[in-house]
Amino acid sequence: MKIGIIIGSHRQESQSAKVGQYLNGMLSAAKTDHWTLDLGKTPLPLWDESLFTEGEHWSMMDGLTQQLRDSDGFIIISPEWHGMATSGLKNFFMLLGAHSGVGHKPALLCSVSAVDGGAYVIAELRASSYKNNRLCYIPEQLVIRNVGQVFNANEADNDPDTHKYFVERARYCLTLLGGYCDALARVRAQDLVDHDTYPNGM
Ligand SMILES: Cc1cc2nc3c(=O)[nH]c(=O)nc-3n(C[C@H](O)[C@H](O)[C@H](O)COP(=O)(O)O)c2cc1C
To answer: Which fold has domain 2-189?
Structure first.
């Protein structure tokens, strides 16, 4: 099983990346293969029409599409910025169509806030972001509030009770994500999906 982690922050050293790094470690401990796209360190070009005519700056999409196709499921991490998911993450989704390799695969949503925010991101991404690419968000989610107190590599920087709670909650979500990876692989294997006839969702 292979999980792709997408970090939505535009900041090069972000709290979202810190959370992603911690989840990386948990996946490694569970012997689950994984890879990370950090949009802060590897920003994608902003969508333009030449995406469809294979403009030169889109050549990087081949490698990304292959990584997405090779994955069984995803973790989508976004900070809450101005009560929204980041524009870089929304751009990422605009670049993914029906044949991008994420369709009918499960994704765990994870929002990040320095304070007590994070809910708007979850609501936004559940409402929009999957229509054409057909990513399937699982019903559990992680809302990492007061992110400075948890998932720090240096244990001394963590609030012990809060950190323990989030680690256990994350472990539960990752296990569940694995279950959905198995389940949706069986759906995809049934040859029911027809993105040639219906390239865009309604
Ligand atoms: C432009 C901007 C807008 C922000 N807006 C919000 C917000 O609406 N709600 C919130 O809880 N935190 C907000 N924050 C603070 C983030 O929660 C904080 O930066 C946190 O570390 C997650 O972002 P990061 O992954 O980029 O580090 C904002 C931060 C930035 C840079």
So the answer is: Rossmann fold (3.40.50)
